[in-house]
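Continuing the batch. This is chain 6 of the set; chains 1 through 5 are on the previous pages. Same settings as before, nothing changed between runs. Recording input and output for traceability.
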Amino acid sequence: MSTSHVLLGLLAAGNRHGYELKRAHDARLPRAKPLAFGQVYATLGRLARDGLVVATGQEREAGPDRTAYQLTGQGREALDRWLGTVEPPAPYVTSTLFAKVVVALLVADVSAARSYLVAQGRAHTDRLRELTAVKTASSATLDDVVSADYAIAHLDADLRWLRTTLDRVADWHREVHS
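Output for chain 6:
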């Protein structure tokens, strides 16, 4: 994820200070890792240095000064370029799940590898149920639904891959240990 581009996108809706940007990020991307305040302010500093945002003033609300930021024309151009660029599919298979399954198949016997795959599949199924409950709740926002749909699609793909791999465990084990 490009934190700087997400912040530019949030600023496209109007001026905001760092605290508001962090809250908006966490609300709009509810299944993403929450941003740390330090990350928000460091990113804003880089965006300001690069001329993509400018400080528009400070306010104080029973706490420290809060600097509001505004998207510049150059910032809007950078945001538009980023949005207009197709995201290439990941060139490499990199995930802890993939690495763990491969290592389990390499070092475990067939029964242990199958047990791991079944347990992992159960965890994925449980998470699918949780996300389905989130998106079907009467209090679900569009942000909740869109992020849950994204997570569900990825979990579903992982689950299908786990099931296929489970079907291939004996063949893999024979190939590796022969």
